[in-house]
Structure formats: C-alpha cells, structure tokens
Amino acid sequence: MNQHSFVQQTAPAPEKKPYSDTRHGITRNDEYHWLRAENWQDVLRDPSLLDAQILNHLKAENTYQSTLMADTKDLQQKLFAEMKGRIKEDDSSVPVKDGAYAYGVSYVTGGQHPQYFRTPRDGGDKTVLIDGDKQAASLAYFSLGGLDYSPDHSLLAWSADTKGSEFYDIKIRDLTSLEDRSDILTATAGGTVWDAQSKGIFYIEMDDNHRPAKLFYHRVGTEQAQDRLIYEEKDSGFFMNVSGSSLNDYAFINIQDHETSEVWLIPANDPQTKPQLVAARETGIEYTLTEGGDVFYILTNIDGAKDFKIMSAPVSAPQKQNWTEVVGEKSGTIILDIAAYKNHLVWLERNNGLPRIVIRERVSGAEHAIAFDEEAYSLGLQGSAEYDTDVIRFSYSSMTTPSQLFDYNMASRERILLKTQEVPSGHVIDDYVTRRILAPAADGELVPVSILAHKDTPLGGTAPTLLYAYGAYGSTIPASFSTSRLSLVDRGFIYAIAHIRGGKDKGFAWYENGKREHKVNTFTDFIAAAKYLVAEGFTSHDRIIAHGGSAGGMLMGAITNMAPEAFGGVIADVPFVDVLNTMLDDSLPLTPPEWPEWGNPIASETDYRTIAAYSPYDNVDAKNYPPVLATAGLTDPRVTYWEAAKWVARLREKTTSDNPVLLKINMDAGHGGASGRFSQLEEVAYIYAFALKVAGKL
C-alpha cells in the first residue's frame, strides 16, 4: 500500500492530569481520566452541560480530523451520491395484515425518516399514522422508538428519542383524529404493550443511571405520576423489557443478563394482577416464552442444552416442573428464535454459520425446512402478526443478492415472492462473486469468512480488503446484502466478514469460547482470518483495513495492539476500548449487566487481570501503529464518548509511526450515529473515504 497521503498537522494533545486507581493491590495511572465528565448522567439529558475544557478538546478533535480528511470531501460526496442512488427513496414495505387493517412503513422522496401507515386489510387508501419527517422537523436528532397499536386498532402508543441518549418519551395517538392525546411518559425505554381492553399500556422507566428498573402500567388519559408500579428490578446486573403475545393474552416481563433469564406473566385482560413467576433465575439458565394457544413454548438451554431446545408447558401451569421437551438439542445447530401459530411451530436455526427455517405441524409432528443453496446467505424470520394463519413471512439475501421478501404457506409449502429490493441505479448480480472460506485459527478451529468481490477484481495479493467483524454477546453478523458496500467493491476492494468466536455462528460453544477468560480467541481469530486472506492470495497485510464497532471496536483496539503489522489501517466505530475502567465503574448503565460477558474486576482479581491483559486502552505501547479512525457520539449511553477520546490520545502519545490517529465525534447523536437514513449514509461515506484514502485509491 502506498504511504498514506495525510497532511502533516499538529494533533490535539489533551492535558495529562495525575490520576491513579488501585485495585487488588495493583495501581494503574490514567492521565486522561479527566475526559470522563463527572456529570455524565446530566449530559445524556442535556449535552449543553458538558464541561467547557472537555467540550473544547472534542471540538479540536473534530477540527483535526476534518483538516486531515479535507482532500476526501469530493470523494465523500461521490460515495454518498452513489449510495443514495442505490436506495429507492419512495420505498414502502409490504403491509402486514392484522384484523381489519394492514400495517406498513414507507418513505417519501427526499425524506430522512419513515412514515408508518395502515390500509384496509385487503388494500385501499393509505392512512399515515406517524410521519417521521414531520416529527423530526427542526430537531438535530430524532429517532422513533416503539410503535404499538392497541388491540382494537383505535390508539397508537409511540415513542421517540430526541437526544441520541436513548431516553424515550411515549405518547398516545388517537387513530381516528390522528392527534396525540395529553399523555406524555418521559424517561422510558421506549417499548410498550397494550392491555387486552385497549385501555392502557405497560412500559419501562429508566433510572438516573440509564437502567431499565421499573415496569409501570399507564391508564390512557391519566398523568404519569398516577401510573401503577407493577414490578421493580432491584438487581442492577439485569436488563428488563416488556413484550406481548400475538393473541393479546399476556404481557411478558423479560429479565436477563448475558447468561441468565427470568420471565413473569401478567394477564393482558387484568393488568392490575400481581405478576406470576414462570421460573426463578438460575445462573446460566436462559429461557424465553412464546404463546401457543393453550400452551407456552419455551426456548431454553436447561439440562445442559447449550445449543438450546424447545419445550412446552400448559398456560395454566407454566412453571418449570411442568416443562416437557418438544424439540431436542442438536449439538452444533443452535436454535435462535421460535414462533407459534394455531397449526404450526416455527424456528430459525443456524449450523456452521448458515441459517434455515424449520416448520413443524403441531398435531402430526411432521417437519420440513426452508433452505437455500448459496455459499453464504442470510434469512430473516418475520412470521405473522396473526395467530390463526398458515402464512408466515421471511426475507432472504446474500452478499450479492438483494433482499427478497416471501410469504410462505406452511401447509401447502407454496412460496410467493412479494418484493425484491430495488436498486434504482442498477445492480447486476453476475458482476459480483461471494465465497465462504475457512481460516485455520491457532488452536485448529476453522473460522468462517464470507467474501464479496467484483468479478473483475484481481486476486493476486494486490486487492485492498476491508475485513469486518463483531465477536461478542453471541451476535452473528449475517452474510446479507448491503448496497453501501458496493461502493468499495466497485473500486476494487474485497469486502470480508470474519465470523469469529464470541458470536454464535457455529453454535453456543463458539460464543462461550470467545468470552470472559477465552476472550483472546476473538482477537486471534480475527488476526488468523487476516493472515489466511494473505496466505490464500486475496490481499496483503498492508492492504487490509480492519473495521468493527462497539464491542467490535474493542476487537479493533485489541488487534491493533496485538498485531499492528497485520493491518494497513483500522476503523473503530464507537469503540469499547476502555474495558477495564468501564467494568470497574458500576455507576455506568451497562456495567453490572455486562459482568457475565467480560467478568467482574471489582470482585475478582482473576477477572481484573484477565481484562487488564487485553483492554485496548491499557495495552497501548510504543509500536508502529497503522492509521486509525475512531468515531464516537457525545450522548452515547452504551459506549461513552470518553472511551474513544482517551484511547486516541494514548495512541498518539505512544505510537512510533507518523500515521495519523483520527477521532470524529458526533456532537448531536449517540451510539447509533446520525438518525436520518441519508445522514447515516454520509457517515458511511466518511468511513469508506478514510479506507480508500489509506488504500491509496482517492
């Protein structure tokens, strides 16, 4: 790769202030600790309260990155125009039928935000229920949260976040007048569930530390102060959400961390009833409930079923002693999701990185599957809004094939193509190739890598490559279609996704072997994928640009420390790089619930030492680091802005190269970046412009 063409410019150098922390007899110095705003809770709600010295430093970072990226402005605009040209601006979903209506989402030409609409069940005039562009007018940030229409279809509970901090306000809209009622519920998690009579909603209130702590019932037309507390979760180590059933019979209180779960039931026709416990939390036991008429289906890992099995229990007695097995565990094939209908049970499973949908007749037990033949592809199970139906909906795509939406009759096995993703500027599938290769890891495991390239791209070790991965929480990055990636691939890039340990691509064990004391496998798997791409002649190390975000940003920080010579550049979006300090700060929103994933360094010296050994910020050293780009959001409650700011400062301080380290911080957004669909494309265009600049392809 050509030597980078970044202009020489003095980078911001934040003041170093003495600060030390001693735990388990070990003392660490953190001269950039002051970048953590002491009043961070207040800043989430009102960014104008940020300390002036911190604000000035962040502004200086933005000025610096803007200067170094100034010669990419035209390229960014070109990339943005290309990406926008691949989006059908006035697109609309295929409405989902429910009762007398069908509900859908659409966009208008030039619009940034979605419109939510409904039509009569079998077609007719469209009524816009929520106009996102109208609601977002004059706001620097706007993101719609939950939208939930009442069982009688007369009211709509909807929520919005206007800071990027993920504090949502809930409102109730009359679907006859299309006017909001006086109800305003503040500081909520955004989701709602209606009672069976359409008279009120269940919702979760966030506490001052941005944790979902209390479930309330709100009667439509009353003040929030009058809302009844239904359940309070006193253990800050657990997340909580509320969900409903397709029969509108129950509200489920779902409580979980990353390895343990607990469910409580509330009859939707009697919202004042005391919640009923299904099975008390037991460390390491996970389960979720799906209603199936007179039974509940339970997806669980009980009895050592690491890849999960499906059980059932009577609705009248759903406790654990009454669970009976319906679908047993198949080791290496993980069951990810289930849905139940009057005549069928449906589940989504994954084996060796590839998904399939399995359908079982509830009476006969006969099974069949929906599968596809491409080397790498993605399936999405959308199911149905109705319980008494034989028709479900699913989506299919691959890295070369635009998304297709199907209705599928589970009884007749008829598949009806409803919609194919339209690419207005054109897309010729045969111009691209996708492959799945297996990269050998250091311990002999094989790491799947999905590859997308243009058919004319030479694979003689000269192609620049963007290598992406996540690798945490059991999340899997699907080999799905992306119109944005084509802007890189059309310029000769290979786009590769490494399905590393920490995800569930190859079953639950693939996740377990990439967490806590095994976390280093996530990092070495990624490095092994990079080395294999070079060994197989796809690219060369100085032409690989690594990319990951959030926990995948931690991956970026770790591999940058462990093997800086293996990468020509690194892009870390909202990166979780100050792992040890964050896991030691139990006031932060996600810290206690994250201990099962990373370990608890407060309570355990072993966990402390494990995290300290890989925490990117704590392991920056005098090395020849490649060019690095980090992004952050000022109001991000998940990965706070100071993680990236501190990491960038330390990288600049320690690096022995003259390669630039950039920080781009969105002062009006949080973890997900800009909220509008075109604003998000502008952020992608910036990131891809950095990759192209580093690759010498301006």
TrEMBL record:
InterPro entries listed in its UniProt record: AB_hydrolase_fold, Pept_S9_AS, Pept_S9A_N, Peptidase_S9_cat, Peptidase_S9A, Serine_Peptidase_S9A
Pfam families membership: Peptidase_S9, Peptidase_S9_N
Keyword Hydrolase (UniProt): yes
Cell division among keywords: no
Residue spans of biased composition, Polar residues class: 1-11
UniProt entry keywords in alphabetical sequence: Hydrolase, Protease, Serine protease
UniProt region (Disordered), positions on chain: 1-25
Stretches with biased composition (Basic and acidic residues): 14-25
Highest rank taxon of the organism: Bacteria
SUPFAM superfamilies: alpha/beta-Hydrolases, Peptidase/esterase 'gauge' domain
Domain Peptidase S9A N-terminal as annotated: residue spans: 13-420
Residues covered by the Peptidase S9 prolyl oligopeptidase catalytic domain: 480-697
Signal sequence segment: none
PANTHER family noted in UniProt: PROLYL ENDOPEPTIDASE-LIKE, PROTEASE FAMILY S9A OLIGOPEPTIDASE
Family: Belongs to the peptidase S9A family.
Name of the protein: S9 family peptidase
Source species of the chain: Pseudochrobactrum kiredjianiae
Species lineage: Bacteria, Pseudomonadati, Pseudomonadota, Alphaproteobacteria, Hyphomicrobiales
